Amino acid sequence: MDFEQIKFEKMDGVGIITLNRPESRNALTSQMVEEIGEAIEACEKPDVRAVLLTGAGHGFCSGADVKLVLESLEERGPEGLQQYIRTLADALHNKVVLRLRRLEKPVLGGINGVAAGAGFSLALGCDIRMAATSAQFLMAYANIGAPADGGSTYLLPRLVGSGRAMSLYLASQPTSATAALEMGLVTQVVDAAVLPRHAMEAAVRLAHGPTLAYARVKALFNQSWGNDLATQLNAETDTFAEISQTADFQEGIKAFAERRQARFEGK
Predict the structure, then answer these.
(1) Residues 2, 58, 65, 93: which is the catalytic one?
(2) pTM of the entire predicted model
(3) Tell me: domain 211-257, CATH 1.10.12, correct?
(4) Tens-place pLDDT, residues 186-245
(5) Are 65 and 123 in contact (CB under 8 A)?
(6) Which CATH class is domain 6-207?
(7) Domain assignments of the chain as residue spans, ordered by start
(8) Which of 71, 200, 207, 266 could hold 13 in an S-S bridge, CB 3.0 to 4.6 Å?
(9) Is 198 a catalytic residue?
(10) Rounded-to-integer distance, Cα 167 and Cα 171, Å
């Protein structure tokens, strides 16, 4: 599968998606969004058991390419700009964010640098995030008079609370990796030089884990926001009963009883 603005490879059960416009800190274009969506779709295949999403160079993703937004305004006027924004946002939301959240694989974000605007939202779409010490998180939208998108108005309040989420939007100032760790935006901070190795090792561990259970718990977490407690408890019961029929669960029980490491195969 050939891409121009991202890199995609499979290694040790991990689908590695690398945003690859380092000269712009991996700013999003329509083409890049399409390519990310195609890579996520490729990760739905059985040979991928976990996903690592990261950026090339010194940035994770600086958001939408503002130069292209400005070009759209200058060449096509306000109506053309509106259409450009709608098309880009629709693609980002439906082909990337929703696919990440619905993907039945754990997704690790390796945040190697600045994650701003839609890049911040893209990081939020991952299940867990590991950041370099040099990483920064910035909503940025208010700085250009824009509302937030990319699912950030849904995902961010659920991670850090509605008050802090609104504060991050209103301030639109960089948040350090350390501060992001303290507020729960990321789960681990490591030195930038070792982030690629640490992130890949973590993704491989996920790929070797009970991926069927991971997928079901991800789905349970996703649906919990719209359920009352009784409905969620019933969903947990149904899910546990379903998983009990899998070879992975039965292997896990046997391994626990035999005091050995379980060998999960996603079956």
Answers:
(1) 93
(2) 0.94
(3) yes
(4) 999 999 999 999 999 999 999 999 999 999 999 999 999 999 999 999 999 999 999 999
(5) no
(6) alpha beta
(7) 6-207, 211-257
(8) 207
(9) no
(10) 6
